[in-house]
TrEMBL record:
PANTHER family: CDP-ARCHAEOL SYNTHASE. The lineage of its organism: Bacteria, Pseudomonadati, Pseudomonadota, Gammaproteobacteria, Thiohalobacterales. Keywords: Membrane, Transmembrane, Transmembrane helix. The chain crosses the membrane at residues 39-56, 118-139. InterPro entries: CarS. It holds the Pfam family CarS-like. It comes from the Bacteria. This is CDP-archaeol synthase.
Amino acid sequence: MANGAPILAQRLLDRRLGWPLDGGLVLSDGQRLLGKSKTLRGVLSALLLTPVAALALGETAWLGGLIAAGAMAGDSLSSFLKRRLGRPPSSQALGLDQIPEVLLPLLLVSYWRELDGLTLIGLVVAFLVLELLLSKLLYRLRIRKRPY
């Protein structure tokens, strides 16, 4: 939900609340801090919808909020690193696009769910595969703008 909420919110809200998280800040390398695709709309949608999804799955809203915050922080970290590597906004960087977005919330939750290293690795790999497959499906359904 944390990963998909920003995509759904963009489709539903169009440009409303589409303010860039980085405020357009350009660093000394000539690149934006995060880029135009990281928006207030995306973060708010993840922070609002993921706790609701957690409640629907029998978890606490607090845990859903923690997952959403970790996922958005990981996604922002990916964007920051891609900008520093000179990658254009919305370009694909296999692994870099997915791993921080799933690993950071898992590490945050692992204290309460006692996730061991092997479980963390399995969940990261499962997320990577699932995210790649769902991205292609959402592209075919014209929900995503790119197939990745």
